[in-house]
């Protein structure tokens, strides 16, 4: 049964049906993992807070101070028990592996993410469950894709499936999951990608809903909608939220560059900052979904929202910048809802504070993560009204212009990767080339011949393969089999010169092959072609051994409709 399963999903690589079915399988598996994760998290929060899982406000002052510190100590212990190679986690790590690691997410890192996120979320750190959810879903998808021998370009598509499935299962928002996967993780929209990703989101939502029942963390809201007369108020709200997003970027960078290098000390400092702030503003503990729902239903005054906003900005920036392994989206939503609630109460002409809180939530997410479409989908799925799109688009657009173009702030995820020395490509064309691997163009229809050690070129030519890789010392050259045949047969009759002398005219600099690593991208290959005179590339291709990509093959792929799987 296992071999039949493997054979079906392993080919052909260009077929859409196996990808859609794999998306469905990934959705079910991701749903199962997320149900387990959420059940354990809810069990922990229920033990602390009772039926209202996010009710950290009811804890005593000592618990508010000590709980994040305890979480930091447990995280320090977990890091000490885990090999260094398995400690990097989160949404930023998924993006890093997509562009630099062929989409291969190690199982050890995924398991570490599961445990670390439970500790961080269960002890009140100001992080979200979305980053861990994405890593868990993407990790499952990556492992399944590797098992079924999908090529790297399809492996990254399956990671998009895992992302959408995890968000859909965790928050019961399949549309937002699909758009987030394509906008933030894959950074592209493609017709081929939509079908498998939608299949994953649907199956994950259905599976988790069957096991957990209704489990949306944010309650749908019914609000009176803004009209055209609200445009000035909407623009001011977008400006305000954009400035809050810029301030958040600066605070995160401040903590990222904090002059303390030891991980244990940084985690402990994050716990102390969060616990100290929670003594006075307990609403900052945890993901804050109870505060978000209370704000959307007009239960909190604007002065309290402003206080929560200031404290949450510091606590979240400290958690992210000092290395607490959690997500960024839930804190973004809470910061946005508080900023929007304040705007709704103070901006002249604002129609309803609850509506502006909802719009602020979307604007903050869109501005910080550069994900406006996913943010708009969140508004649509929460408001259950397409009429909310007009005010949402106005506020989201304004906030993005302020943060991204006015102050030139990059996506938060790119900031986190830059501090780790990883620079992701963001230009659309370069991104597309950087996320496709040269190994997917590799051919194995060539023979090897070493002038220094082999003495039977005739046997090599009898294989009738189109190319022969001729090795001479440390260099390799690409020669057509027919060209070798034309000089080798006459040489057999005369042998006045050595074989090396006869082949010398065929081994010019323009025929030299360069060796690249297995994870070389199309962008790397093109840059190499600009700098070096070469006939092509040799590179390792998994279990298949050494592969050959000729200059002609690469140029043909870039200039014609030839598919890259």
From TrEMBL:
CDD domains: Voltage_gated_ClC
InterPro entries on file: Cl-channel_core, ClC, ClC-type_chloride_channel
Keywords from the UniProt entry: Chloride, Chloride channel, Ion channel, Ion transport, Membrane, Transmembrane, Transmembrane helix, Transport
GO CC aspect terms: chloride channel complex
Any GO MF annotation of the entry: chloride channel activity
Membrane-spanning ranges: 16-41, 61-82, 103-122, 157-182, 189-211, 231-252, 264-282, 302-322, 329-350, 356-380
Membrane topology: Multi-pass membrane protein
Cellular localization per UniProt: Membrane
Top-level taxon in the UniProt lineage: Bacteria
Entries under PANTHER family matching the protein: CHLORIDE CHANNEL PROTEIN CLC-E
Protein name per its UniProtKB record: Chloride transporter ClC family protein
Native source species: Oceanisphaera psychrotolerans
